Amino acid sequence: MSDRPDSTADPFEPEVRALAGAWLERVEPLAEDMYVHLEGRIQAVGSSAELGGLTKASCRSNVETILSMLVNGIPAAATEAPVTALEHARAMAKRGAEVDDTLRFYRLGHGYLVQHWTAELSRRVADRERMLRAVEQSTVFMVEYIDIVSSRVSAEHLAERERRQRRASVVRADVVRTILDGVPFDRGAAERVLGYRLDRPQLAFLCWTPGEAPELERAAQAIAEALGDGRPLLLPEGPQLIAGWASPPGGGVPDWAAVDAAIDRAPGQVAAAFGAVQPGPDGFRRSRDEAERARRVAVLTGVQTGTAHFDDSALLDLLTADLPAARDFVRSTLGELARPDAATATVRATLLTVLAPRGGIAAAARVLGVHRNTVLQRVHRGEDLRGRPLDDRPTELFLALVLAERLGPAPEE
């Protein structure tokens, strides 16, 4: 004789089916009582007619489904989340609620149902062993049912939140593009969409990484906080780039040391380019343009981490607007002085220091930490390599040396 259990055996005691059938006939008042129970414990239920209606409908659908499955001996593994339960989850996501806020309805509803169900079974079933078996069967079923429905409701809540976030991001991006394009716009409406005031001083920045950066948005938030703005506007522009706007307190000079520290704490390689602080909506656009130009220079010169500021990048941005022409300018102006070897690089660095504002032979010797005669020797060597004296087109020579320092001495075609 086989010891294997009979797979066709009734999964529920007759008492379980009987009580489920009796309750199924009065499912409306049962669902109403559960709704009142939830309404008294979850403030959000009464704050919206839509949410209240969906909560009541979800109570009815879940209670009716549970009772119907018990009556018909359907295992909990066959559970499908009721449509109203999924719609309730979407409504909660629409309100900005967290997943746990949605699941609290199920924890409280489950507790309410089990409490009243167990009490009714105790009254109906006199035999203690049969009563305990009935309680165990139905309780195990309800736990599994709630677990399955909760998982599907959670997934729907998260999916709806993601859908709404994507839609909101698209709308925000459209508003930002309108402002950046200089198209007339309603400032009040734009501020409501962006959740960001435009009438303050504006400092735009671009935060990026050359690799994977799941924490990039957190790094951008930390940068904004270091700038003195806890509620910045952050707009992802791809997996490796975030645009941001912040308003330093009083429109003053930010604490750049704090910004540098925030970037240093960021995981991986993170860099940020900053425009200057500019006033109002027009400043929103101008500072962003400056940040883009500072980033262009940073990428052009191989910066992969740290900060780049437009004030420090403006000249090089201007000089490299036509990059092939800039490289031709370096070659034609420097001649042999553009050679890539270390000795020639030392000569170029010396000439750059001599020609810099407030430079000269003595200043270069002091800055470089060498004897004055060493500077003179390097100047003469530079003149020989270039084939011209130092005072022949000194401005062009200085700019070519700047380009060589930042771009490399002899860039390829």
UniProtKB/TrEMBL annotation:
Residues 191-297 form the CdaR GGDEF-like domain. InterPro entries: CdaR-like_regulators, CdaR_GGDEF, PucR_C-HTH_dom, PucR_C-HTH_sf, RsbRD_N_dom. Residues 30-169 form the RsbT co-antagonist protein RsbRD N-terminal domain. It comes from the Bacteria. Residues 349-401 form the PucR C-terminal helix-turn-helix domain. Belongs to the CdaR family. This is PucR family transcriptional regulator. It comes from Paraconexibacter sp. AEG42_29. The lineage of its organism: Bacteria, Bacillati, Actinomycetota, Thermoleophilia, Solirubrobacterales.
